[in-house]
Predict the structure.
Amino acid sequence: MPRVTVENRAATVSGAWDFEVELRSDPATTEARTAVLDKPGFGQAFTDHMVLASWTSDLGWHDQKVTAYAPLRVSPAAAVLHYAQEIFEGLKVFRHEDGSVWAFRPEVNAARFSRSAQRLALPEVPQEDFVAALRALVTVDEVWVPPAGSGETSLYLRPYMIATEAALSVRPAREVLFGVIASPAGPYFNTGPKPVSIWLSTTSIRATPGGTGAAKCGGNYAASLAALAEAVANGCDQVVYLDAVERRWIEESGSMNVFFVYSDGRIVTPELSGSILEGVTRASVLELAEDLGHKVEERRISADEWRDGVRSGDITEAFASGTAAVITPIGRLAWAEGDLTIGDHSVDHGVGPVTASLRASLLDLQYGRVPDPRGWLTRLA
Ligand SMILES: *Cc1c(COP(=O)(O)O)cnc(C)c1O
């Protein structure tokens, strides 16, 4: 991979926001970094630097910088710690064969971050500055992007925003911090995608009409953990939630959107109801599925249609989509009174052919192995 000196890389950082670059004096040694890149895991190890930017109601955004990755100092009275005024994003960057580094649809994450900010009464980050922040960090920490040809590896970026104002009154905070951290990510499944089992929760609800389900905020995740524990206690890996009103319609999993493949090749995913998180992977799968000749439907689908379809053979595959695991086959559905196996588990470790081909087309695009006619990739380094 092309090597650039740290000084050169620092000098190339640009964007509408002006990032001051404070390079750390004690970056990880080559050995330590190589050890991480050889076996990255997910969300365990972080790169040498991070992005920070401050916002106050008086000054707006200021103090944008790339600085040493380190613990934050926040007041114990910071609003985020008490009232969960927080949002985040997650996206991956990929190294291509020629050494270049690309983000997948970062402008879509930027737009979603703005919508999440509005819902949580946080200030918006201008969308080009959001992308500039990602570029600033990736430019400085480029050596942390796993090499091309090392399998499904990437650098996972985690932008976030927290209310830092020390004030216990309940109102939108007047002091806020925006940050980006980066973590090398290995293949989510070490030995190829493995079907997960899903617990259909009939007691917990993830999101309600008018609630925060369509925003990517930490509170949604906090509220999902008890149901996840229930799923694990019932031998499952993930939860799928039903709608809050009729408790009948499939919404999504705690961190992934869901899809169903029918025997005639149709692909169905729950329509965005206002309480479903609009996944970048979901939107991309819908377009790629059409390229592959599938008819796609965004509509309501009930838990009964899922169960009946699996029993009759009308539904042949199910999968979940999200940045971290890309596309995850769903092999089993369980609920309080029963369970069902989905698809033909004798084929290719239980990964159905449609799931496998969608997964391959998305990965081929992300790693630059096929043309990118829609311009979904943005070069960062
Ligand atoms: C992040 C997330 C997803 C997946 O979104 P991607 O943009 O595809 O990563 C799905 N559901 C929920 C609840 C999420 O938070």
